Amino acid sequence: MKKCIFIPDSFKGTMTSAEICSIMAQAVRTHEPQAELCSVPVADGGEGTVDAFLQAAGGKKVVATVKGPLFEEVPAFYGVLPNKTAVIEMAAAAGLPLVGNKKDAEQTTTFGVGQLLRHAIESGCKTIILGLGGSATNDGGCGAAAAMGAVFRRTDGSTFIPVGGTLQDIASVDLSSLQKVLSDTKILTMCDIENPLCGPTGAAAVFAPQKGASPAAVKRLDCGLLHLAKILQQATGCDISQLPGAGAAGGMGGGMAAFFHSPLQSGIETMLDTVHFDEMLKDTDLVFTGEGKLDSQSLCGKVLSGVARRAKAAGVPLIAVVGDIEGTAADAYKAGISAVFSINRTAVPYAQAKLRSRADLFLTMDNLMRFLKQFAPQF
């Protein structure tokens, strides 16, 4: 084997993508000490996204002090890749862990996210990738827009920074200053869910309860987001009320589309494009991917489906090493995955299996390499 790529998703609650890459590489290196090994840790836009991009593409981490979800000063960060593309995790400035036991979806803000965006732009970044996920907010991205120059007014003409509980107070919004800041910048938003902005599967109904919202607050937040959608349609012509993914991160998906003209796109596709995965596949003998559980959702725009599509197009064999397999995996084979292997070597409950997952992953990879060396010499 001359070249091998590792590009797994995390095994949720067990191993990060970076840990899995390291264990896979250790096993392969044992049998192929001269092979070129390329690791591409994957994250879905939430915590760990910046580190994943930096490890895969290189670059540096930038630290900045911004407003946290409760308008307090907090240290935050973003990554800058070698090509001056900035990678920002929304959670770094508006994440749920930052509020501790003070969860309140009606009072939290994305203002700090906007400050990170502005910091990256003023530092010379012309392209920004923003990962949605893990937020404590439900303000539809109004805070981020305000930090970038948007001016929100009430019916009496007074200005304010809307939060989830005051979205219905917005009478108008002036985006002229924001548009000037954005004039020479492209923002891509990583969004892997398709929840709409409002309704029974919207931002408030599905995600606000875990952010501290009571049933009554959920109704108020939902009404506020619907009102925001109407205001934004008047101001921008963009209707986010039915946009798939608009409900992500407390309506931040919709806010990114309307305020920032940012396309909402698959996290894995964004990462694959950013690290030039199609180029990486050239002269590659084998690709390893994986996730915690292979099931019916695995091929619906997630890591395995994105990697499989590109590996198949390049004619490169792809092996999925997973924690568990649900069903026959027939769809995985159709999608372009050459083989699927579970690391569960002993039938034990998950609570026990997770404790031995690292050793089981190494042993499974070691077993695979022994087979490939003996019976598939081209690898």
TrEMBL record:
GO molecular function (one): glycerate kinase activity
UniProt xrefs under Pfam families: Gly_kinase (PF02595)
Gene3D superfamilies: Glycerate kinase, domain 1 (3.40.50.10350), Glycerate kinase, domain 2 (3.90.1510.10)
Keyword field: Kinase, Transferase
GO biological process: organic acid phosphorylation
Top-level lineage group: Bacteria
Entries under InterPro entries matching the protein: Glyc_kinase_flavodox-like_fold, Glycerate_kinase, Glycerate_kinase_RE-like, Glycerate_kinase_sf
Family membership: Belongs to the glycerate kinase type-1 family.
Protein's name in the database: Glycerate kinase
